[in-house]
Amino acid sequence: MENLRLYHTGFLTIEHPDIHYGRSNADFGQGFYLSDSEAFSKRWAKQRKGCDTVLNTYDLITEGLNIKRFTRDKEWFGYIFRNRSIQPDTFAEYDVIIGPIANDTLYDTFGIITSGLLSEKLALELLQIGAAYTQIVLKTEKAASQLHFLSSEVLNPETLIPYQKAVKDEEKAFQQTFAERLSQEEL
After folding, report:
1. Cα torsion at 187, 115, 121, 183 (round to 10°)?
2. What is the DSSP letter of 40?
């Protein structure tokens, strides 16, 4: 039996997550999104006026769960493309999906693909640029029932500053590399 220590940031302490809350057109469809990295969860943290930013910590007991693991490949790309296009979930039999987070630039990439200006092959190559961070998504009630809340911590806004700076620096480097690689192609 494998246990996974997982993290979720938001504006509330969430002891019992709702897998039906949130966008259905997210990378891996509707579900409760987590990270296996506390540092990345702090990087992902948002701030909202009048609200605390909260880091929730959990253990997921994976025994008996049907888990799909992705790498940055054509299957991953296709799954995200279908979810972002709000098509039926082709991996609905899985309780948990684990794989790389698609960059926010992905929406722009998909827009370019659907307009016919960019091939899927080149889009997948472009999406290989930059760091690969992992997301874990609970898709079923069974998975949610095996997620055990451990604690929550209010994050001080000042402690988030270095994480936010790192994200901005990384996004800038990614955008520059992406633009340079795209400019090498004849569209």
Report:
1. 30
2. H
The C-alpha atoms of residue 122 and residue 132 are separated, in whole angstroms, by 18
Mean pLDDT on 10-38: 92
- Determine the number of helices (DSSP H) and then strands (DSSP E) in the chain: 6, 7
Q: Do residues 146 and 34 make contact, with C-beta atoms less than 8 angstroms apart?
A: no
Does 129 or 153 have the greater pLDDT score? 153
Q: What are phi and psi of 140, to 5 degrees?
A: -125, 160
- Using DSSP's 3-state secondary structure scheme, residue 1 falls into coil
Give 56-100 as a DSSP string.
EEEEEE-TT--EEE--SSHHHHHHHHHHHTT---TTTT-SEEEEE
**Tokens 């809340």 -> residue:** 149
List the chain domain ranges: 3-183
Give the tens place of pLDDT for each residue, 74-92: 899 889 888 888 899 999 9
**75 or 106, which is more confident:** 75
**Residue carrying structure tokens 């959990």:** 58
